[in-house]
Write a structure and sequence with these properties.
The chain has one domain (2-138): Nucleoside Triphosphate Pyrophosphohydrolase, CATH 3.90.79. Strands 1, 2, 3, 4, 5, 6 and 7 form a 7-stranded mixed beta sheet that branches. The radius of gyration is 15 Å and the shape is globular. It has helices at residues 40-52, 114-117, 121-138, and strands spanning 2-13, 16-22, 27-28, 31-33, 56-71, 77-90, 103-110. Helices cover 24% and strands 43% of the residues. By secondary structure, it is α+β, with helices and mostly antiparallel strands.
Length: 143
């Protein structure tokens, strides 16, 4: 089994979280593979910047998600992927999708609507955790 290590960010600005829309219509969080010599934090910050053109600062580590998938193009090899997630605060609301990676839109979505937009259940779980932390940070009033 092949192992892949990735890192990404749940990036917020005020009361909104950054999502990227892929060419197939799926909304996802920015993340990517760790490069040689990088720390997990460096990978997460680099991937957020590359995929969305957002400069951010890490607030805290949120946790990791592990999942397996099969590469049909490489003899059906099973891959275990671990994604390490960080809560990040964006320096501005400006964002631009990296079109060469298949992203067609980058957008900050209000924390009350972001979970339902995210395509994957594991990312929705990380977003849910992050939303609770963001509400405490920004002093968001809970009904």
């Amino acid at each position: 089994m092949k192992n892949i290590t990735s890192a990404g960010g749940v990036v917020f600005f005020n009361n909104s979280i950054l999502l990227l829309k892929k060419i197939n219509g799926d909304w996802v969080l920015p993340k990517g593979r760790m490069e040689s010599g990088e720390t997990l934090e460096e990978t997460a910050l680099r991937e957020v910047k590359e995929e969305s053109d957002v400069k951010a600062n890490i607030v805290e580590y949120l946790g990791d998600i592990k999942y397996t998938f099969r590469n049909s193009w490489s003899h059906n090899e099973t891959t275990l992927k671990t994604v390490y997630w960080y809560l990040m605060r964006a320096r501005s609301f400006d964002c631009h999708p990296l079109k060469t990676e298949g992203f067609v839109e980058a957008k900050f979505i209000h924390i009350n609507n972001v979970e339902e937009k995210a395509r994957y259940a594991d990312e929705r779980q990380i977003i849910s955790l992050a939303v609770g932390k963001i509400k405490k940070i920004i002093g968001y009033e809970v009904d």
